[in-house]
UniProtKB/TrEMBL annotation:
Entry keyword annotation includes NADP: yes
Stated family: Belongs to the short-chain dehydrogenases/reductases (SDR) family.
Name this protein carries in UniProt: Short chain dehydrogenase
PROSITE patterns documented for this protein: ADH_SHORT
Gene source species: Colletotrichum plurivorum
GO biological process: mannitol metabolic process
Keyword Oxidoreductase part of the UniProt annotation: yes
Sorted UniProt keywords: NADP, Oxidoreductase
UniProt GO molecular function: ATP binding; kinase activity; mannitol 2-dehydrogenase (NADP+) activity; oxidoreductase activity, acting on NAD(P)H, oxygen as acceptor
Domain Phosphoribulokinase/uridine kinase: 34-169
């Protein structure tokens, strides 16, 4: 449960930050975060509220002053129940929604909002020894900033309880297995002297508390779930892979892997912005071929990904040319020997500047566009070398940079998710491109001997994974790394 407590602590801090930033704060304005925590009897909501609020108040440094307000003080007094026409039933069913002062709970929540920073509020509590509420048993000081109001009926849709949900800032509903809740409540009844045997306590829990619990679970419709809505999903899997009208930037787009990625996405309908550094002729030929073969728009841009200002400017230019940006693929890379004791430090800087800094610069510049439009996809070409120190080549800088880009993608995936962005990485193994063509025969033979499929890959074998990640087929995929290495890292 500790992870749950800490998650809720962070949720409070996040909600508090949102509230203090969103409200027009003046010396006369005093924000107060009000949370309704509900759940069936025996769900553990009281413990959760107390542990979470204690953790918030124990935080070092500035933090919101927080308090728990149990709603059990709104039980109707025994004298009131005994005066009812159905007194026997009321006492036997004490804890049912009609045995509470629901309107009193609504009025308390309203007063908590109105009194923030102005005046203290007196809230009722419940004396378990005399089994009756105590009027004004708890004082909520004017400077309290977070109020966690916990009670079983706070989120049900039946009046007057249904008025509470719109009044609070956050709504938490605790669920628990019914058998566990029943056993907890029975133990509580026995300890409080409500029943004198466990058999009777279990019977009371089944006949009353579990009935109330079922009502709470099925009628708590007013709660505000943190669940994000599902995006539109095509029934046809082939349509899920279409990219018609979308714009994709590919860095290193004129190279062996970049060219095949571009062709794969163009075949699915994407318009392509091909970034190159020195391969002007290859990039021009590629863009012309993409337009001719697939009828899409395509344009080449010379961009040095080592310079963030150039990257940012090129992203802006592509958005101006195509009218939008949907996918950024950071594919440029330098597989070079660097990082060894006898290698020049300048070689380390050169490789890192392209393989790591360049990937980050591309994701940052595109991410700013994606965040503004509320959606976008990032894909980083990492490498199996980010998972294993492959041999015989010595390339510690390249390996470290690729490992870094894998974790960069994971980290950005968490950050981007809050506004609708996704980002993943692809880790290819040995690919048959011009870069690897110059490698000695003996080196390649060692590669093949260590690869279960006993070969390198045709770059066209990578088109599928990039299309998947760029398209809506991967709408629930983010923060993942896809290793396409013929089994090298599986050994």
């Amino acid at each position: 449960m500790e992870a749950t407590y800490q998650s809720l602590v962070q949720r409070i801090l996040s909600k508090w930050d949102e509230k203090t930033r969103s409200e027009n704060n003046t010396p006369d304005t005093h924000p107060r975060l009000i949370i309704a925590l509900a759940g069936p009897p025996g769900s553990g909501k009281t413990t959760i509220a107390q542990r979470v609020v204690s953790a918030v108040n124990a935080l070092p440094g500035p933090h919101p002053k927080s308090i728990v307000l149990p709603a059990d003080g709104f039980h109707l007094p025994l004298a009131t129940l005994r005066a009812l026409p159905n007194a026997a039933e009321a006492i036997a069913r004490r804890g049912a929604p009609w045995t509470f002062d629901g309107q009193g709970a609504v009025d308390l929540v309203r007063e908590l909002r109105a009194s923030a920073g102005r005046r203290p509020v007196l809230a009722p509590t419940f004396d378990h020894e005399v089994k009756d509420p105590v009027v004004g048993g708890l004082t909520v000081d004017a400077d309290v900033e977070v109020c966690v109001v916990e009670g079983i009926y706070l989120l049900v849709d039946e009046e007057p309880w249904g008025q509470i949900a719109p009044l609070v800032d956050d709504r938490w509903l605790v669920r628990v297995e019914p058998e566990m809740a029943r056993d907890r409540v029975a133990v509580r009844h026995l300890a409080a002297g409500i029943e004198d045997t466990m058999e009777k306590a279990l019977h009371r829990a089944e006949a009353n508390d579990m009935v109330n619990g079922e009502f709470i679970v099925t009628r708590s419709r007013g709660r505000k779930s943190i669940r994000a809505p599902n995006p539109p999903v095509q029934d046809s899997v082939f349509k899920q892979f279409r990219l018609d009208g979308r714009t994709v930037i590919i860095t290193g787009g004129a190279g062996g892997i970049g060219t095949e990625i571009a062709r794969g996405l163009a075949e699915a309908g994407a318009n392509l912005a091909i970034w190159y550094h020195t391969s002007s002729k290859a990039a021009t030929i590629l863009t012309e071929t993409l337009t001719k073969d697939f009828g899409v728009r395509s344009k080449a841009y010379q961009v040095d990904v080592r310079d963030y200002k150039l990257v940012e400017a090129a992203v802006a230019e592509a958005v101006a040319d195509f009218g939008r940006l949907d996918v950024m693929i950071a594919n440029a890379g330098v597989p070079s020997k660097a990082g060894g004791l006898d290698d020049a430090v300048e070689d380390w800087d050169r490789v890192r500047a392209v393989d790591f800094d360049g990937a980050y610069y591309c994701m940052r510049a595109a991410g700013l566009v994606f965040r503004e439009q509320g959606s976008g996809v990032g894909i980083i070409t990492a490498s199996m070398s980010g998972h294993a120190a492959n041999v015989p080549q010595e390339q510690s800088c390249y390996n470290a940079c690729k490992a870094g880009t894998i974790h960069l993608a994971k980290s950005l995936a968490v950050e981007w998710a809050k506004w609708g962005g996704r980002i993943n990485s692809v880790s290819p193994g040995y690919i048959d491109t011009a870069i690897s063509g110059d490698c000695p025969f003996e080196m390649k033979e060692e590669w093949f001997s260590l690869t279960p499929l006993r070969r390198d890959a045709d770059p066209r074998e990578l088109k599928g994974i990039y299309l998947y990640l760029a398209s809506d087929a991967s709408s629930y995929t983010t923060g993942a790394d896809f290793i396409i290495d013929g089994g090298y890292t599986a050994r």
